[in-house]
Amino acid sequence: MARHIVIERRDPNEILEIVKGLRASGLTQGVHFDFAFNQGRWDAMIGEIPKHTVFTFYEEKYSTLFALKYIS
User: Fold this and answer.
1) Helix-strand-coil percent breakdown of the chain, rounded to 5?
2) Nearest CA to 57 among 40, 35, 25?
3) CB neighbourhood size of 24 (10 A)
4) Which uninterrupted H or E stretch holds 34?
5) What is the pLDDT of residues 22-33, one digit of tens each?
6) I need a labelling partner for 31 at 20 to 30 A (CA). Which of 3, 9, 45, 66 fits?
7) Within its chain, how far is the Cα of 23 from the centroid?
8) Nearest 10 degrees: CA dihedral of 61, 11, 47, 36?
């Protein structure tokens, strides 16, 4: 079962550094993980929707290690 982890308010360059780190550790995008960056925007009903990135991991062990390292 896929696990989704959301990281908010990080710039695209920071996200790409995280992705490079995942790849350097031996993970393969499309096999072990995927990610989607969403630019922040203004919504008239909600207000500010901050930029955020959704990381999807296909094995729980990878999502757990990721959360421990990158979620504060």
Assistant:
1) 35, 35, 30
2) 35
3) 8
4) strand 33-38
5) 999 999 999 999
6) 9
7) 13
8) -50
Residue type, 43: D
Q: What is the pLDDT of residue 50?
A: 93
Q: Which distant-in-sequence residues (6+ apart) come within 8 Å of 45 by Cβ?
A: none
Q: What is the pLDDT along the chain (72 residues), one digit of tens a residue?
A: 899 999 999 999 999 999 999 999 999 999 999 999 999 999 999 999 999 999 999 999 999 999 999 986
| pLDDT at residue number 29 | 97
Helix (H, G, I), strand (E, B) or coil at 45: coil
Rounded distance between C-alpha atoms, residue 10 and residue 15, angstroms = 7
Residue pair 55/3 in contact (Cβ under 8 Å)? The answer is no
Asked whether the beta carbons of 55 and 33 are under 8 A apart, the reply is yes
